[in-house]
Write a structure and sequence with these properties.
The protein is α+β, with helices and mostly antiparallel strands. The protein has nine helices and 14 strands. The strands form two sheets. Strands 7, 8, 9, 10, 11, 12, 13 and 14 form an eight-stranded mixed β-sheet that branches. Helix 7 crosses helix 9 (about 270-280). Mean pLDDT is about 95; it is low at about 285-289.
Length: about 290
């Protein structure tokens, strides 16, 4: 097993410590590209097809060449095999417009270790602040070139928000619209528990459709949960029975403090976490088959 694994779409395993990107790659100079991040656990990449589908949609939104998904599947298989089965990994799919001086996209798969922060928030939860995102919920429909529903490499604003939160002593952020509607986290989907109902903001409000959240909703019915997409306000989060930040690698992190308010522990906390584990385990197709 390696500390990191790098595989190209030519299915070549490269030295992950050697230079790879050109200095004029548009991912570097413009953030012009898309990506996905998957969890690797037990020797398998989880919820692969949902991530590949979203990668294709993001590429289409940016006018990038349509990904050849079979090539990506094989690259994922090779990367996971190189990574091994004894530890978790964060697997990234990256597609850029390529070099400023060239005409071919850059595409690769990379696996690295899961951050210590991830394990900590899975166990202990998060303190979160709300921050204004700076746009209306209807901006995506009025200005599709803003790419609000695409997972692009342009993450500077998201990372700035997280640094701002850290400077205030918080772990994470929930963005709100100019109308005051709950949107999403910089790297996660917000899911609220109300009795035995799971609620998340509608993707039509200009947020990224969460792959883990969708997988969760797919299995929640069999555990006697109702699932809804509906508008939420920060006050709804404070009044909820539980608030969670859900994402592909962290999986489920409970919000225990929001804007300085201590949120109650939910009776279904353990059940919710297990349900997310079940959701990401429901796509267990062995890529080597």
């Amino acid at each position: 097993m390696s500390d990191r694994v790098l595989v190209t779409l030519d299915h070549e395993v490269l030295d992950a410590d050697a230079p790879f990107l050109h200095a004029d790659d548009l991912a570097v100079v413009r953030g012009d590209g898309v990506f996905e991040t998957l969890l690797v656990r037990g020797g398998r990449a989880r919820v692969v097809e949902a991530h590949l589908s979203r990668l294709a949609l993001s590429a289409e939104a940016l006018g990038l060449p349509a990904p050849v998904l079979d090539d990506w599947r094989l690259a994922i298989e090779i990367a996971v095999e190189e990574w091994g089965s004894e530890k978790e990994g964060a697997l990234r799919l990256v597609l850029t417009r390529g070099r400023e001086s060239g005409d071919k996209p850059t595409a690769f798969v990379m696996v690295g270790p899961v951050a210590d922060r991830v394990r900590q928030v899975r166990e202990s939860g998060l303190s979160v602040i709300t921050l204004e995102r700076g746009y209306s919920v209807d901006l995506s429909a009025r200005a599709p070139w803003q790419l609000l529903g695409a997972k692009t490499l342009s993450y500077a604003t998201n990372m700035a928000a997280l640094r701002y939160a850290a400077n205030l002593g918080a772990d994470d952020v929930i963005f709100v619209s100019s109308e005051g509607n709950v949107l999403e986290g910089p790297r996660s989907t917000v899911v609220v528990v109300r009795d035995r109902t799971l609620i998340t903001p509608p993707p039509t409000q200009g947020i990224l459709m969460g792959t883990t959240q969708r997988a969760l909703f797919d299995v929640a019915g069999s555990a006697r949960f109702d699932c809804r997409y509906e508008t939420l306000r920060p006050a709804d989060l404070i009044a909820a029975d539980g608030v969670w930040m859900v994402s592909s690698v962290t999986l489920a992190a409970r919000v225990h403090t929001l804007d300085g308010f201590t949120l109650p522990g939910t009776k279904v906390a353990d059940e919710f976490a297990k349900l997310v584990e079940r959701a990401i385990g429901s796509d267990l197709t062995d890529l080597s088959e």
